Fold:
Amino acid sequence: MIESASFTAAEERALRDAYARGEAANCPRCDVALRHREIGGGSFGLGYSRRREWLLCPSCKRSVLFDAQRGTRT
Structure:
């Protein structure tokens, strides 16, 4: 059986929730601390902007990207 190269929806939700609570996020597959990258976006001149968070696993290379303010997938 081939394993998916991405997190399941439930795993992504758990990672977003842990991040929102300020807890350290560990990869649910490898149990390794995820690396964090902040990604800006949107246009400040047009009245909207996004602050995205990107959590990456250095071991299995899976990642989750979400809107930090809304706590949802981008």
Q: What stands out?
A: The chain has one domain: 9-73. Residues 9-73 form one domain. Residues 9-20 form the longest helix (12 residues).
